[in-house]
Write a structure and sequence with these properties.
This protein has 196 residues and is mostly helical. Helix content is 55%, strand content 11%. It has helices at 31-44, 46-59, 61-74, 76-89, 91-107, 114-124, 161-167, 172-182, 188-192; strands at residues 2-3, 10-11, 16-18, 26-30, 137-141, 156-160. Helix 3 packs across helix 4.
Length: 196
Amino acid sequence: MRRCTNCSETKPLDGFAINRLGRHGRQAECKACLSAKARTKYGLNRGAEIAKSSRWNRLNAVKVAANMRKCRERNPEHFRDYARGWRERNPDKVREGDRAKHRNRRAAAGKVTAEEWREILAAAAGRCAYCARERPLTMDHIIPLCRGGTHDVGNIAAVCLPCNASKGAKDLDVWFFERLWRDGIRTYEEVSAPSN
């Protein structure tokens, strides 16, 4: 048990945040008081706090993406419901995104016929071109259309939906190395080592 220096309530130790440098290894103020202080500080400096948070997120994009992936894996229903709700609340943005996608496809040079797509799928033999897992395959533009890629056979890969969705409009090499970093592979030797 410990007494909070702010509200003077006596609470169990798990009611206090960990502070390895503090006395007893805990903060002097309880979690409720620290949370109230943080909310007050945020309310008084909302613009500065948002800018600080945005700056940190930009500088730590790989960490943020890894944390978001873990959150989505822990609670996929929440994220599915959130995305569905966002689409319902923002039909104009959804429509504009669809229009932009179609504009990019129409403006791109080249064309992939249904027969050519079937040949690409047959050559893939059910395995994703990026992760080599056996999954249902989707069409991906290796160089994204929004980055000047073409809609022809030389720029099409058969990939699984998770790889296609996570790559999005990124260049393949940028996405691939972000993925390696996320998975804990940091050196060329680790990339080229044979997998067991």
